[in-house]
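Q: Structure for this?
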Amino acid sequence: MFVERRPKMDGEAGVLPLINVVFLLLIFFMLAGSLGMVEPFEVRAPRSASGEGERSQRVIRLSMSVDGRFALDGQEMLRDILLERLSDMLIDDPTAGIELKADSRLPANHLVRFTYLLEQAGVESVFLVTLPDRP
Amino acid sequence: MAAPKYLEFALRPRRRMVIALTPLIDVVFILLVFFMLVSTFLDWRSIEMTTDAAALDSTGSSGDAPLLITVSSAQIRLDGRVVLEDDLAGEVQALLADNPAAIVSVRPLEDVPLQSLISVLDLLQGAGIERFRLSEDIDWEKPSIDPSSH
């Protein structure tokens, strides 16, 4: 039986191919993936055929869970505290938009009511985060 | 006889590599795992939402009666009439042709989930109707979930 014999590499030189592969994987994940937000609760974004892609506008990220809990930039907080923080942030950057990731099973009226509050707090534009329809 | 200067480097006894590879691999692995866990490949999109709150504040100043679409779990109504999902876009377009300044107002009723509302918005957008506003069901009561209990 013929067994290929690899030339024996001395010491650490043997791990060089491994490092090559790991570096390639690392660069792939850094470039191809986008950093997601870590949410304190599960949020299933609704599916939609008509969402638009990336925007250049600076956005503040809000999340809303199925049972009506809120999070600002991945940090869970009560609604009124969130609105207060938000108006503080809007003083610094009045043109910032809101990216609202709400659960698809949430009662829609809950979202509409919250959007009213956001508009009262001085938010110019509210974007609802969606995922494209399954093909 | 001393070796010529340019040969000095080659003749020097081989030393250990300047950078030890094992710590390097450790760090690279940690970075790799971090990026694998944190990155998402989902294609996030977004829809702009506007409500009729501003219109409610200045009651009657805009003369156009909005077209009201109500979405309940069982049916879609356009200005009170039940419409089929497939006919909705056509009917709204016909009404907008008569009254181009009208704004479509979409109101979810009761506990209709967000996904149903989005589906109706998709129908409208599919028909080229870009201007819509969300409207709230005033009779809807917020479910008795106290967020402070978490």
